[in-house]
UniProtKB/TrEMBL annotation:
Family: Belongs to the ABC transporter superfamily.
Main localisation: membrane
Name this polypeptide is given: Stage 0 sporulation protein KD
Gene Ontology process terms (BP): peptide transport; transmembrane transport
Keywords for the protein's UniProt record, in alphabetical order: ATP-binding, Cell membrane, Membrane, Nucleotide-binding, Transport
Residue ranges of every copy of the ABC transporter domain listed in the record: 6-254
SMART domains for this protein: AAA
Localization in the cell: Cell inner membrane
GO cellular component: plasma membrane
Length: 278
């Protein structure tokens, strides 16, 4: 049995111009210990799919699926109370913007502690000790001092590490990382990716990496799903995808990589679309 199995997922939003379909019949399958990359340009529905899985989309969204199971548990049938027992504990998510995801009015230690209080039996000093342990595990310097820092007193990379610590606090079986290196400089990006892969390998959890960066895909993924305009274009293991892409859109993405430049100008995805490639 797969860790996460989603079949025929559709998401529509009510807008002033009428219904907008953000996802159109997409399937996702993730096994324990596997790294699945979901790749595609902005607007392809990558984040929407995972937010739908987490139950975090607004009421304006209509979500349907033939199947949406986590370890055999039907996520579609859970009440809000039942969902809270799973989301944040067994399934966690790292969001794109760490500064926007952390509450500026509370210390990072307090916010980490709230996660532990919600999903574990730890109390008092046990919570603080575990918070410092988590901050240490994700490489935050001087965790004993930083535990009392507010988000604005920390760098973007440190805030992202806090978000990772929060996501792994309860040893999730599935971790979703939504563009985890957005807005970070190249050196910090590498550190964050290495950290995520190490945590995944050490714990054996499933990891879904949402990205538009094919370099991240090549470095971290076992299997890849390529999306475009809310649909799955291609799914393959990472080696097959790079060596022998089948779908024209996948070929367009790979052709737009700087290392694949053959002329004065890199081709764009629009070039392929205008030529009738997909």
């Amino acid at each position: 049995m797969s860790l996460l199995e989603i079949r025929n997922l559709r998401v529509e939003f009510d807008t002033a111009k009428g219904p907008f379909r953000a996802l159109d019949g997409v399937d996702y399958l993730v096994d324990a210990g596997e790294v699945l990359a979901i790749v595609g340009e902005s607007g392809s529905g990558k984040s929407v799919a995972m937010l739908a899985t987490m139950g975090l989309l607004p009421d304006t969204a209509t979500i349907t699926a033939d199947k949406m199971d986590f370890e055999g548990l039907d996520l579609r049938s859970l009440s809000a109370k039942e969902r809270r027992k799973v989301i944040g504990k067994d399934v966690s998510m790292i969001f794109q913007e760490p500064i926007a995801s952390l509450n500026p009015c509370f210390t990072v230690g307090f916010q980490l502690g709230e996660t532990l209080k919600a999903h574990t039996d730890l109390k008092g000093k046990q919570v603080k000790d575990r918070v410092i342990e988590l901050m240490t595990s994700v490489g935050i310097p001087d965790p004993g001092g930083r535990v009392n820092a507010f988000p604005h007193q920390m760098s973007g990379g440190q805030c992202q590490r806090v978000m990772i610590a929060m996501a792994i606090a309860c040893a999730p079986k599935l971790l979703i990382a939504d563009e985890p290196t957005t807005a970070l400089d190249v050196t910090i990006q590498k550190q964050i990716l290495d950290l995520l892969v190490k945590l995944q390998q050490d714990s054996g959890m499933g990891l879904i990496m949402i990205t538009h960066d094919m370099g991240v895909v090549a470095e971290t993924a076992d299997r890849v799903i390529v999306q475009y305009k809310g649909r799955k274009m291609e799914e393959a293991d990472v080696l097959s995808l790079f060596e022998n892409p089948k779908n024209p859109y996948t070929k367009a993405l790979l052709s737009a990589l700087p290392e694949n430049a053959t002329g004065d100008r890199l081709p764009t995805v629009s070039d392929f679309a205008e030529a009738g490639g997909f």
